[in-house]
Every structure is written in C-alpha cells, then in structure tokens.
Amino acid sequence: MAFLRSAINFIDMTERSIMNTNKNILRLVFFPLLILYYETILKAFTYSKIFNIGYVYMCLFSIPLGLLFYLLSTGFNEKTNKIIFFSIVSFLTLYYGTQLIYYRIFYTFTSFYSIFVGTAKALSFIDIMTDTLRNNIAELFAIFLPLGVLVYYHRKLQFDKIHKNYIIKVAVSAVIMQAAVVITVLSSDVGMLSPSYLYSETFLVVESVDKFGLLTTGRLDIKNILKSIVFAVEPEHSEIIESEEPDPADELPGEPQSEEPTIEVAEYNTMDIPFEELIKKEGNEAIRSMHKYFSSVKPTKKNEYTGKFKGKNLILITAEGFSPYAVRKDITPTLYKMQEEGFKFNNFYTPTWGVSTSDGEYVACTGLLPKEGIWSFYKSSKNYMPFAMGNQLKKEGYETKAYHNHYFDYYYRHKSHPNLGYTYKGLGNGLNVTETWPESDLEMIELTVPEYIDSQPFHVYYMTVSGHLQYTFTGNYIAAKNRSLVENLPYSKNVKAYLACNIELDKAMEKLIQELEKKGIAEDTLIAISPDHYPYGLTLNEISELAGKEIKTDVDLDKGIFILWSRGMEPVEIDKVCSSLDIIPTLSNLMGLEYDSRLLMGRDIFSDSEPLVMFSDRSFITDKAFYNARTNEVTSFTDENIESSYIKETAETVINKFKYSSMILDTDYYKIILE
What we know:
single chain, four-stranded antiparallel β-sheet, eight-stranded mixed β-sheet, Alkaline Phosphatase, subunit A, alpha/beta
C-alpha cells in the first residue's frame, strides 16, 4: 500500500509538473504569438505583400520583445501580474488599431512625435476618423478579437509568479536573441532601403514597418526622437580649434564636383561663405562634415530668367490636395488659363512625405527635405530660416503676410510661419472666415486681399483648405456648396465631390486676379501654386477615373502641378523633371534674390543643373531613368543602357541630401554659417 501511495503521489507530482510546464510554455509563447498575429493582420491590410524578407525579420524581432512582455507580467504577485498582462494586451490592441486607422486616412503610420504633439489637433478631424472607423469594421474586429477572447475567459487564466531563476534564464535568452537579430540585420546588404540602412542610418516609417514590424519601428522611432534631442542640446556655437589643412581626399561624397575652372562668383547663385577657413577651424565634427559637404556641392548658374520678376509682387500658394487632373477648361477655367498662359511644367512632382500637409508645406517653403518621424516645419520654428521667401523679401522691403483658412494653430503654424518672415493669420487669430468643414478658399481671398493690395511691393503666402478630404457631399461643406456645378459630370460621386472642392480654389483664384487687375498690378504680380500632396482621400481607382488613365505606382500618384503665372507673360513650356523641392530656389532666382544654391536641397528649375526628383523612400527620377528603391528596379527613359555606376552615384547624392537636410534642421546650420 505504501508503495502504491508513493507511486500515485509520484504520478500526481509528475502530472502537475507537466501541467505547470505546459502553462509556463503557453505563457512564454503567448506574447510572441500575439505580436506575430497583430503584425500579420496589419501587413495584410496595409501592404501588397505579407510574406517577404521583412516578415522574417519581424518574426525574429517579435520573439525577444514578446519575452520582455512575458517577464513584465510574471515577476509580481498574481493580481499585479494580471493587471500588467491586460494592460500590455490593451496597449497593443489600441496601438495596432490606431495605426491601421491612421494609415487608412493618410497612407502612412504615425510617429510617437505626432502622437504626443498632435493628438489634440487631430481630434478636430473627428468626422473623418468616424467615417474611417465605420469603413474598417472587419479589420478592427480582427485586431480587437484577441483582447475580447481574453476578457471573456479572464477568470480561467492564471497569473502566478514565476521563479526568479526562470526569469533570469528567459531574460538572458531574450537579450541573446535580440543581439543575434540585430547583428543579422546589420550584416545585410547595404544600399537603398536595405535592412541595415533602415535600421542604423535613417528612419522611414512605412519601409521600416514593412521590414521590421510596427513595434520595432516604434523603438527606432524613439531612437530617432532622442537623436534629435541630442542635437538640440548641443552648444549654440561649437568649439573652434585650429586644425590642419583638410585633405581633399577626405571630402565627404556629395554632388559631383565641377571640373570647370573657377569663374566669377556673379555667374553663380552663391554667397560669400569661407568654407575652407570654416573647415579648418571647426571643432564639432558634425558641423565640420556639413561644411565639407556643402562646399563640395556644385552651385547653379544664373541664367536668362534670373531677376525676371525682380521687384514684382509674389503670391505663393500651397493648395490642399491639389492635382493636375483637377485643372479642366470647363470645370476650373481660371486655373486652366493660368496653367496655359504661364510657365507650364510637364514633369512636376509633389512627393508625399510622412506628415502629409505640414511636410508638403515645409518642402515648398524652405527648399529642404523633411525629416521623418517629426514635424519638421514645427521644429524649424526655432531655427534661423534665411531662404524662406518671407524672410528674403522682407529684407528687400516687402510687406509679407501669410494666411490659412483653418485653425491658426493647426500644425503649430502660428510658430513656424512668423519664423519664415510673415505676419500670420488663421481662423481664430484674426482671419474671420466662416467656420465650416472645410472652410472656403474664396472667402479667405475676399477677406485678405484688402489687407495687402495697397502695400506694394508685397509677398503673400496662402495655405488653402477647401480641397481637403473627405470627398463626399455629406460632411464636406465645400463639396456640397458646389455640387450643382459637377452634378452632370460623368464621374463617380467621390470624384465629383473632389472636383467640387477644387472649384472653390478656382473661384478664389478668379477673385484674386480680378482684384489685381482692378488695382492695375496683375502684370506686376507673380502667382505660384503647388499642392501639398496628391488627393489621397480618393482611392487609386478614383484617381485613375479622375486622370482618365490607369494610375499604377506611387510615382504616378505623386505627379503634381506647379502653376507659375503673371498677366501678360509669354507662355513657356518646361519638360525638365522637377518637384516642389525646387520652388524656393526657382523663385529666388526669378526674383533676383541673393541666395546660396549649395545650401538648398532643390535646384533652380531654369538652371542647367541635372534634374533630380527624390521621394521619401529614396526612389528618384532623373532625365535618364526612374530608380525604384523598394524593388531596386531601373526604368530607362532613353535608348541607352543605364550604367549601374550612374544609379549608384545618384543614389549616393540622394542619401546625402536627406542626411544633410536633416542635419540643417537638427543643428540650426543656417544660423551657424550665415547669421
């Protein structure tokens, strides 16, 4: 009997041990599997491909991160462990759900910077969010399903404390695995959008989520923010030391060096900057590298258009969601007339950036590339920005004003725009447009023109809002207002609504020109209009319908429009590949202003500079080819073979432009070198 009892006890202990082991294993693998589930769902609803090399990296990164969550929810008493467990699951559910909805609206993922800085602002678009939530019920159900199941069965779940030695073993295993994955990533092929480049050299949120998953991207996002903080707290003036004469071989790769002999400075758009002396004396290595880089950039030559509009009034407009396909002779006649009578740019692009409208403005107003993961325009409000048109023309004695017909502090424009040299008004701080959604561009023009038209010369900047999504006749005041004008057009409802929104912009331009003509200064005024981004409130099929042709790629979507018009000018057609990044240097040259073309990332379109359009994913277009950084494919525009060396050199130029544009923002470089 004693033997039997011992045997039964042994079996019972073994059974309990096995059960406990199984429970431990289940708890151990739960979070890695949960993360894998969320990442798979997110990829399925946001990317064309789920299973690629990025999915492998994502799986590998999910394991140590899941183990970390496991450790956090097992090291305390049962009640505390349970609270932590459900807190983590709830956070993951909300995080993935929020990112999905954000992507559905803006076709990108939000950064932590945007969450912390802009959440309150985003709430003003609650109607758009509600519609998006309603249209993505199935996707959200899939994301919230695990949390719902866990809540339903929570009484059956056990959250007992795990032994300390076991916790140590799991922690060590997680660290080793994380290190192994990082080493694997860093040893991957270098180059455009390689895992190594994305992990260690830059932060591109959409590409990073594809390669590493959302949670790892979040960690890289935090690292990116911390790097910005480090730059921000560096001394205002770096230490100056005497150093040896720089070795020419020590130059950083930049744009191709000019082999032409030195000629008169007057033939180039440059300023008198003693780079050689600055390089020798600069003690801060980051700043020194910038001096080297910008001294290596080939400046643009002055040309037949230099100073063509010197002393003229300038009206610069960033038009919300504007598209070349909205310019129709029968629908938007004023915009069509301006396009046909002015400079007509046949290959103009408006790349879409991470912070959509704000980044689009930043590019068009500064000639710099935005830094991913932050609000570059807002951050620039603390910097010296001498090449913004407001600051350049204010120095020339111009009256300089800026207006926005939505809330004045949205995207913190009340901080960024005055820093550009403008007296700024928006809804809530002096611009008393009727508060609708969206607000009227026409009403903004009617209210503001009297404020500056008698103060010549003047420069005015407008950020419009009538073209904002959603493109429906319910919930969009402007679309409903102009509905009768598009009712009989052969398009779907959403496309009609989009065109109705752009009719408001057309009416605004008609009114603006009428007022200029009434004052007799239409010939003395240059008007420049470009979009902030393509109308991503329309689906790909709807944009194809609007365009009258199939739109297949992101590059096709980013095909933009740049209207540059003055009454009485001779129409000029430009085939050169160009983008919104080129607006500031082009206007600076046209207005005959002193600027340094080496210190901007764009180029004067009318110069003999090699054409280059860069996209956020590091893809690029030149006059010879289109390089797709995501697929590593090259599409030639000529009959000649495109040498791999040409793609490599151009890719290097693109990488450097993004790198040093970010450094200009982080270090307040213009203040260091020009003020």
